[in-house]
Amino acid sequence: MSGPLAGLVVVSLEQAVAAPLATRHLADLGARVLKIERPGTGDFARGYDRTVHGLSSHFVWLNRGKESVALDVKSEQGARTLRRLIDRADVFVQNLAPGAADRLGVGSAVLAESHPELITCDISGYGATGGYRHRKAYDLLIQCEAGLVSITGGPDAPAKAGVSVADIAAGMYAYSGILTALYERRATGRGQNLEVSMLEALGEWMGYPYYYTNYGGTAPARAGVDHPTIAPYGAFVTADGVTIQIGLQNDREWREFCTSVLVRADLVVDPRFSANADRVVHRAVLDGLIGEVFAGLDEAELVKRLENAKIAHARQRTMAEFAAHPQLAERDRWRSVATPAGPVDALLPPVTVRGREPVMGPVPALGEHTGEVLAWLDTPS
Q1: 295-327 tens-digit pLDDT
Q2: Known active-site residue 28
Q3: Which residue, among 51, 66, 52, 54, has the nearest Cα to 19 in the 3D structure?
Q4: Which residue in 43, 139, 167, 287 is the catalytic one?
Q5: How many other CB atoms are there within 10 angstroms of residue 227's CB atom?
Q6: How confident is the model over 40-90, as pLDDT tens digits?
Q7: What is the Cα–Cα distance from 47 to 62, expressed in whole angstroms?
Q8: What is the CATH number of domain 233-315?
Q9: Which pLDDT score is estimated for 342?
Q10: CATH class for domain 9-206+326-377?
Q11: pTM of the prediction?
């Protein structure tokens, strides 16, 4: 392995999304990630679907570059092997059910005493203390508990986010926390015991609606693809059936939008639309006026006007259109990654380091590296 984390050993008792996302980013930086899986079935995310050449889309996304070790950690021998692996590790990550790591004898408090240089990271739904600590936590449930569902969707019904945002938030904070602990260990020689809860991770992302509601007295309205506090800000359909999203931020943009895009200078002095607060109040009328103009323009003409007026806009793309996005192609952001079922295309990690290519190793088959890793355990450290 190459990369800035080459030589680092990460042992992970992981499943689903949160912990696998954190450790996959470590693997992309060159860390050796030993993924402990149940013999026979493995990480249950392997069975979520069969859409990627027969493999699970979640698993392919989250597990490249890792070594799969099939280990029955509930057996005496398996538990002993797990402890030996942790003896050789720099980082130990787990997102098992509440209390499971403690029952296996690898809880963070025990490891802090026996392995002072080890960095441990516990990822859970609600944290290690408090009345909710033993509750099972899945992404949608945390979206509900954090209030995200209440402000997402349209006026008639709430909705969850289309991706596992609570898991992703927890995974990314675990990743950044581990990097911070590694940096600190260079100075102190000691590890850290990190704890990340999905509720608190997603709660951090809910900062704007929290402040808006707690100090403003009302929650942000569910507005679909519109913005609850800015107008015009939403989706409109062109004459050739393309959905274009626009967003305006200030009165200067509003004036330019009226004169150069809508070609309706009269709207600039219309008292219903004189300031953003007025435009929000009269959003339905305003959206109707904009919709009429956009419906008479094809995409090419509308985009030309928006570009000339420097109005922020985007095409509302499908996932297939995202996969063929010209910007990603022009920036050469796709790489081929090996899987047990054949190569797949994968996006480069979002942080670009000039002159360095991320590792992006193969997606492992279940237990593919068990023998190799066990043999490594018997070699001198």
Answers
A1: 999 999 999 999 999 999 999 999 999 999 999
A2: no
A3: 66
A4: 167
A5: 17
A6: 999 999 999 999 999 999 999 999 999 999 999 999 999 999 999 999 999
A7: 13
A8: 3.30.1540.10
A9: 96
A10: alpha beta
A11: 0.91
